[in-house]
Amino acid sequence: MKFARFAPIILIAVLVFAPPAIALAHSPVFPEDNHSPATAYQIDDPAKSWAIYNALEHDSGDYYKFTVSKGDRIQLSLLTPDSPSTSGFLPSLALLVPDLTQKDSLPAYVEVPANYGTIVVNGTDPGEATYEAFSPGWFYEVGNLNINAPTDGTYLVVVFNHMHNDDMHNHTHQAASYGLVVGYIESFTPLELILVPYSAQEIYRWEGQNQFIILLPIILTLIIGGVILYWRSQQDRAPQGVSKWLAAFAGLAFLGSAVSTIYQVLLAFNVTGATGEALITLILIIISIILAVFTFMYAIRSKTTLTLWRRVVLIVIGIIALFLWSGLYIGPALVISAALVPPYAAKKM
């Protein structure tokens, strides 16, 4: 069976398996220096589902703002990657509402603008972590708020550290990670889809992982695969021409993504235990493996000319990989390059 005939299978797999994974995702953002109402991070569309990853300094608040009309739905969730019972960090949130008479108590260091009321959601320890299929990873949901906006105007959300328990004495003065989920409509722009692999690396660091360890599975896959390719070349079974060498390493990058994702699933299971939601992550793993297999099939076939149709298929694979987060940008770049370079000289089969 010719390599190019697999193109429809790739597209069908993407159309069937990709939407369920994307539908449960949040658009990640990583704000900085939003420690006062004047420097509050602007959320342009509070209905869209955003996952905001940040770290809270000791005795300070982080501020976010958005504009809504009376009756609009406001949905907020507060997360942390560490168990509050062991970390000593238990964040809370307050919704600052214009012209609201309700004024819940807040720490003295939290700044409330004039004519704003406060709705406070004190963080509580959920006891167990939740598996996040999108990254994959885990989190502890310590608070949530779901209300309809009582007035028109610009609202503020402030996240602060509220210590409810004297047993939480081991909290240090270092910044502690938290996540704020805003909105309820899951959607991605094309740019957000492309940036997901980069955002995932940031999320893993937010969880406390070391950057080198995060990349180690894909690095090892590329190294081991490169050694195997070199061994094959010593037996005159190397990929034929530059295009096929590029495709071979692209396949290794796709396979490395699958290995890396499996590693992250195992890390998460160590915290959350096995869960059925991992089936969503399994879809992403399978897509990476499918892309790797199809790319390898082109790379290892001997004396196959690089026809226009094969170039198109390679480009399609690269685009699919880019938008479905496989290959950590290396794979898509290599497979598209494999489609664009001049073919090696060989007789057409």
At a glance:
The chain has nine helices and eleven strands. With 349 residues, it is of the alpha+beta class.
Ranges where pLDDT stays below 50 over 5 or more residues in a row are: 19-24, 164-173, 345-349
Q: Name the structural class.
A: alpha+beta
Number of helices: 9
Main sheet properties: 6 strands, mixed
Cα gyration radius (Å): 24 Å
Structural domain tally: 2
Helical residues, percent:
40-55%
DSSP, total strands: 11
Shape: elongated
| Share of β-strand residues | 15-25%
Please outline the helices and strands.
Layout: H1 7-23, E1 27-29, E2 41-42, E3 50-56, E4 61-68, E5 73-80, H2 84-87, E6 91-98, E7 116-121, E8 130-132, E9 137-148, E10 153-161, E11 176-182, H3 190-194, H4 196-206, H5 211-234, H6 242-272, H7 278-300, H8 308-323, H9 330-340
Parallel strand pairs: 1-3, 2-4
Antiparallel strand pairs: 3-11, 4-10, 5-9, 5-11, 6-7, 6-10, 8-9
